Amino acid sequence: MAKTQSKTQLVNLLKEASEVFKFCSKKTKILSALAWKPEVAQEFFAKKEGAVPKPTYTVDKKAIGECVEVLKALGPKLSGDHPVRHWLVRTQESFIDGCELLLSLETDRFYELSTKLYGNSQTRFFNGQTSNLDLANAISTRMSVCNLNDIGESMVRRTTEEFALSLEEKLKSRVPPIPVRVEITDQIVAKVVAGMNRVRVRKDARFADLELTALWNHEIESHCLTAHNGGLQENCDFLSAGGPRTTMTQEGLAVFFEVYGHTMSQPRFLSLCHRMEASHIVEQGGDFMQLYRWYKERADSPLEAFYATQRVFRGAKLSGGGPFTKDTVYLAGLLGVYNFLRFAAKNQNRLLVESLLCGRMALEDVGTIAWLRVHGMVQPPKFIPEWLSNWEALLSFFSLSALLGTMDLSGFQSYFDDYYTLESWDISL
Question: What are 137-154's pLDDT values in tens digits?
Answer without folding.
Answer: 999 988 766 655 555 545
